[in-house]
Amino acid sequence: MSTSTTAPILTAPPAAPSPSVVRDAGTDTAPGVMVIDSCTALGATLVVRLAGEIDHYSAAPLRALLASAADDGCTGLVLDTSRVTFCDAGLLAVLDWWPRRGRRLRLANRSPAVRRLLDVVAASADEGTP
Predict the structure, then answer these.
(1) CATH number at residue 57
(2) Which one of 34, 43, 53, 104 has the minimum C-beta count within 10 Å?
(3) Percent of the chain at pLDDT above 90?
(4) Whole domain around residue 82: which residue ranges?
């Protein structure tokens, strides 16, 4: 026995379309891509060479690497940023954590992007801006 039906598959009316999101035409919504190009331990000092873009999301591998290095007893960090093309406060958040508990930090070969970020931070500190 077979029956046919003409009842609609969807019983509820379709939902109203969601309003479109307006973004600045110059805004990049994709997270950056940061690459840990090399990582070498020299005694208790970790030497890390970074490349690409560093933001809050792409800095996660660096945060994990540094946490592991700190747990393993590394007390020094040399960070080569010569190949970093973009960075924001995501990099600062990672770097702010490292010097705690007597660990040393040195930024080597600062790229123009890193220099700009550090200049902005220094200017804010000079103005007394929190």
Answers:
(1) 3.30.750.24
(2) 43
(3) 62
(4) 34-126
Residue 27, pLDDT > 50, answer: no
Non-local (6+) Cβ contacts of 114 within 8 A are 81, 84, 87, 91, 107
Question: Could you tell me the pTM of the whole model?
Answer: 0.71
Q: Would residue 25 count as lying in a domain?
A: no
Element (H, E) at 83: strand 76-87
- Which pLDDT belongs to residue 24? 43
- Please enumerate in sequence order all residues whose Cβ is within 8 A of that of 111, keeping only pairs 6 or more positions apart, or say none: 81, 82, 83, 84, 85
Identify the residue whose tokens are 């007893």.
Answer: 73
What is the number of residues in the chain? 130
